[in-house]
Amino acid sequence: MRRQPTKAPPRPPAHRTAALAAAVLALASALLLTLVAIRWHPLVALDGTVARRTHRWAVREPGLTHTFRILTDWVWDPLTMRLVCAAAAVWLVWRRAAWWTALWLAVTVAVSTLVQQSVKAGVDRPRPTWPDPVDSAHYAAFPSGHAMTATVVCGLLLRLLNRFGADRFLWRAAVTVAVVSVAGVGLTRVWLGVHWPSDVVGGWLFGALVVAVAVAVYEWPRGGRARPPRR
Question: What pTM did the predictor assign?
Fold first, then answer.
């Protein structure tokens, strides 16, 4: 007797998955924020150990340090990343007439910037200081604006590619670029001595939280009202 193929269990709705991810990320972000704000000694000690070691490497390797400065100042700079999102929003309107999606993209990036600056002002964490700095940066340290912006932009663009059904090659290439960008910008900020490692982790966590909340809002059922077309 031939066995009937078993059906795969139904996948949970996208808005529920995103909301669950947002809850987990919110807890992790709040925990790290608290540890940074109270200057928890084990975290401060670990930050200092990693930062001092990477700074010594940065001083000894000026060629690599110069490359990292170009990447962080031009390729992965928050302004560059936001311009990429702006171009994506223009494309959505021009080629797809997807006004709702373009607005969602722009508002999410704007909210991300507001959250980032608010947390920076609230925590007011000093940046590392060195007698022989290889780079400089302004404003408070936590969370890393470069890391958070890269996470938000790459996360949103990956979500859009997934929704519009990118082919396998494009999807894999996009995921690779996103992973390299998000991880790479974090590495450069610590290497250049302008952030503590936990600043970068905070940027990643807060950025992922913003993306999860944005996806949950985008996918949330609208009750009896007709949902805007998402092309």
Answer: 0.90
